[in-house]
Amino acid sequence: MNPAAPTAAMVVIGDEILSGRTQDTNLNYVARFLATLGIDLKEARMVPDVAAEIVAAVNTLRVKHDYVFTTGGIGPTHDDITADAIANAFNVSIDYHPDALELIGARYKPGEFNEMRKRMARIPEGATLIRNSVSAAPGFQIENVFVMAGVPMIMRAMLEDIGPRLKRGRPVHTSTITAPVAEGRIAAALASIQDAYRSVAIGSYPFYREDGFGTQLVVRGRDAIEVAAAADVIEKALCAEGFKPTRENR
Amino acid sequence: MNPAAPTAAMVVIGDEILSGRTQDTNLNYVARFLATLGIDLKEARMVPDVAAEIVAAVNTLRVKHDYVFTTGGIGPTHDDITADAIANAFNVSIDYHPDALELIGARYKPGEFNEMRKRMARIPEGATLIRNSVSAAPGFQIENVFVMAGVPMIMRAMLEDIGPRLKRGRPVHTSTITAPVAEGRIAAALASIQDAYRSVAIGSYPFYREDGFGTQLVVRGRDAIEVAAAADVIEKALCAEGFKPTRENR
Asked: Has residue B139 been placed in a domain?
């Protein structure tokens, strides 16, 4: 689409994702959040709670993209190793951050702010904090890498703090056309429409429901006029074949 | 855990995942499917519908792991480029596979088996088909790479055909202890239990619900006795602190 749009990658950290214990929903949320800012999420990696794997993923992606977002591994327990891994990736030291200590400490009664809880205030050198309204423990930003919690409620609150720090791209316009048609029936027409409208990306997604099957055709692009024009042609092609499409523009 | 267990990686292919249009659920399903076979899913990547990205991910992962599973991009439309990308990754040719042509052709009335639908029968040289009970169009296996549909219903049916082809590892035993405790309160005890039971992995996952907060502690390992022993110690530590844990063993 627009090569000048900011790009991003995501690293989802946690054994619980790869073991199947937890269904990740953070990637989808981040993708939609970035889309509203005109930032393209280009790739994502799921890695286990293994420092070398976190370091490798972050170091590969942070030079390829404008932004990297990580989720998971910043709590108080022994399996929370993300902050140390990120310090390692950037080759900087890590220590208790005074503001983080104060933020977190304020949430506990005297005597409850134990050593393990203090671990959550360990922040790599040079990083700035990412606050959130749900939990006292902050995430942090170091250069173009944003380190967030894995708990979805907290991760979402952290994104609110991150949003204003990001440069925005032109928004992506989407037009979704849904019709009770098998995608193979209209595939040839779609291919030629895609050929004619090079500035948009046309995706075809079949669905199977109890009340029948169909296809959603999604036109995405930064030029609203081109998106609308391609969607019009698709809609007309479906009408000409006797299908009754519905359409949603965003 | 057990270094001798077979390992796997997953490549989730599709713009719809990275744009946020679609919430992926295939990774979670594959993770749980492999766990029942004792195969460790070690990492995953989400890539867009871009041939070079698919090729790079598959070629990186297929030499690192016993198995690679891909989902998405094997339908009839112009954005379905996975089969070609896989042929490219293995540097082999791609052509219509007679069995695939027959399977798919049998589903259509005369005249409906058009050129775009025939695309779904294009299979890289040397690959074997992955059949499924839901859709006629097959996936395929080439060496240690399994190429599956993105539609969850079809992907799940394909896994049934793949299962018998996989070598199995020792099953992973899991014991999950749930208690209404903040994870920071028990983090030090957990760290020392993890130190004492090196053959298991102990994960700590806080949750926040309307009826209160708590933590799930998940002990995973291939030695059932060690898993049970570590879970016992965690349970006793929680009881000693006055919490009433519940426990689920698998």
From this structure: yes
Q: Which residues of A touch B29 (CB under 8 A)?
A: 20
Instruction: Name the residue in chain B with its Cα closest to that of A33.
Output: B20
The CA distances from residue A12 to A27, A30, A56, B204, in Å, are: 8, 11, 13, 16
For A53, the domain range is 7-165
Residues on chain A touching B118 (C-beta within 8 angstroms): none
* Residues in contact with A198: Cβ distance below 8 Å, sequence separation at least 6, in sequence order: none
Q: Are residues A152 and A209 in the same domain?
A: no
pLDDT digit string (tens) for A178-198?
A: 999 999 999 999 999 999 999
Tell me the three-class secondary structure of A101-146, residue by residue.
HHHHHCCCCCCCCCHHHHHHHEEECCCEEECCCCCCCCEEEECCEE
| CB spacing of B41 vs A20 below 8 angstroms | yes
A28 contacts B79? CB cut-off 8 A: no
Residue A151 has pLDDT above 60, yes or no: yes
Nearest CA in chain B to A28: B20
Six-digit token string for A162: 């991150």
A209 & A137 share domain:
no
What residues in B contact A31, CB-CB < 8 Å?
A: 17-20
Q: How many CA atoms lie within 13 A of A43 on its CB side?
A: 20
Q: What's the pTM?
A: 0.95
Q: Judging by beta carbons within 10 Å of its beta carbon (0-12, 13-18, 19+), is residue B223 exposed, middle or buried?
A: middle
Is residue A226 situated within a structural domain? yes
pLDDT in tens, B160-174: 999 999 999 999 999
Q: What is the b/e burial string over A98-107, where b = at least 16 CB atoms within 10 angstroms of the residue's CB?
A: eebbebbeee
Query: Are B43 and A47 an interchain contact pair (Cβ–Cβ within 8 Å)?
Result: yes
Q: What is the ipTM of this complex?
A: 0.95
CATH number, domain containing residue A226: 3.30.70.1130
Q: What is the largest CA-CA distance in chain A?
A: 74
Q: Residue A44 and residue B45: Cβ atoms within 8 Å?
A: yes
Cα dist from A159 to B20, B192, B229, whole Å: 15, 34, 40
Asked whether the beta carbons of B70 and B15 are under 8 A apart, the reply is no
Q: Tokens in use for A233?
A: 């042609």
Q: From the CA of B221, how many Å to the nearest CA of chain A? A: 11
Distance, in Å, from the CA atom of A205 to the CA atom of B22, rounded to the nearest integer, reads 10
pLDDT digits (tens, 9 = 90+) for A10-37: 999 999 999 999 999 999 999 999 999 9
Look at chain B and report how many structural domains it folds into.
2
Judge: A42–B48 Cβ closer than 8 Å, yes or no: yes
Asked if the Cβ–Cβ distance from B28 to A41 is below 8 Å, we say no
CB A82 within 8 Å of CB A160: no
State whether B233 and B158 are in the same domain.
no
